[in-house]
Amino acid sequence: MPGRLLRGLWQRWRRYKYRFVPWIALNLNRNPRTLRYVPEESKDKVISDEDVLGTLLKVFQALFINDFNKQSDILTMLPETVKSKYHDLLSVQHPRVKPLEYRHEQQNTFKPEEILYKTLGFSVARATSSLISAGKGVFVTRGLVPKGAVVSMYPGTVYQKYEPIFFQSVGNPFIFRCLDGVLIDGNDKGISKVVYRSCNGRDRLGPFKMSDSTWLTSEICNPLAVGQYVNNCSNDRAANVCYQEFDVPAVFPIELKQYLPNIAYSCDKQSPLRCVILVALRDIKQGEELFSNYYTIVS
Ligand SMILES: C[S@@+](CC[C@H](N)C(=O)[O-])C[C@H]1O[C@@H](n2cnc3c(N)ncnc32)[C@H](O)[C@@H]1O
């Protein structure tokens, strides 16, 4: 009898794909309604990888064009076809400025949040959570997030299952666990910050940055990279976003990698870079706080 019970518990634990380990240990019994069930791993995705890629490229391209006068080192290294694509995009967005003059002109750049709003029709930012003693949260500061939109990204260092994370994980509520056991450390302080910065420096290829580290500062270049601050839903605050994993394809433009807020802990070139994005589960209005579901059960 105890054997059957233990086996049952073990099977349930194996099916249980936890997201935030310390949080689950403390809160599972208190908040049973915050569990999210998905039928099988392959059905965990709410939107297609193509849609995720399309949105990221759209936002990153807009950020790149907005930063155009700071991108000259990168532009000189790009093939002519790619350069002319950006010049075309630039002339559509700034019709009165000739591309060659552009680098020398004082460009009127917009803030990244403004670019996000112009590109996707909404912006998001961190602020004190509407939940008592939940610290910071993430809010829709402008516009409307339509159902199915990529609303945020979960930044951080990506660890494969077998890589050492013990010291970074002690007392760290920002460790996110993917369905396949890959971990993402989204803490912007302490040892986690040092590790991310060091990996970011390691992977730089001349003028090409392979990831963005500005999410560790108050001047964020990629305005989507605030997903680690999204709080967990509760019995009276239903989840309005969910996590979705996304592996960056090999065809991802090298000049746009500077906006990816994730980096691999070890430089194993075999596996694609894992990112986690947050997708809106319904239309989310200006002023609303984002709530995700920290627990996912795959049955
Ligand atoms: C990934 S962090 C989220 C960001 C956090 N609010 C902050 O300001 O650092 C997870 C932590 O946020 C807090 N948190 C998340 N959801 C919560 C909720 N529904 N109620 C209270 N605290 C919450 C818990 O302290 C949890 O360990």
Q: Strand arrangement, largest sheet?
A: 7-8-6-11
Report helical residue fraction. 25-40%
Query: How many domains comprise the coordinates?
Result: 1
CATH topology: Beta-clip-like
Could you tell me how far the N terminus lies from the C terminus, measured between alpha carbons in angstroms? 24 Å
Q: List ligands, each type once.
A: S-adenosylmethionine
Q: What's the gist of this structure?
A:
The chain has 299 residues and is of the alpha/beta class. Helices cover 30% and strands 21% of the residues. It has helices spanning 2-15, 21-27, 49-66, 72-77, 80-93, 99-102, 112-120, 166-169, 190-202, and strands at 16-18, 35-38, 122-128, 136-143, 150-154, 156-159, 175-177, 183-185, 231-232, 241-247, 262-264, 274-280, 291-292, 295-298.
Secondary structure elements and pairings:
Layout: H1 2-15, E1 16-18, H2 21-27, E2 35-38, H3 49-66, H4 72-77, H5 80-93, H6 99-102, H7 112-120, E3 122-128, E4 136-143, E5 150-154, E6 156-159, H8 166-169, E7 175-177, E8 183-185, H9 190-202, E9 231-232, E10 241-247, E11 262-264, E12 274-280, E13 291-292, E14 295-298
Parallel strand pairs: 2-14, 6-11, 9-13
Antiparallel strand pairs: 1-14, 3-4, 5-12, 6-8, 7-8, 10-12
The structure holds S-adenosylmethionine.
S-adenosylmethionine binds at residues 23, 129, 131, 134-137, 173-174, 228-229, 231-232, 234.
Protein name: SET domain-containing protein 9 isoform X1
InterPro entries: SET_dom, SET_dom_sf, SETD9
Domain SET: 122-295
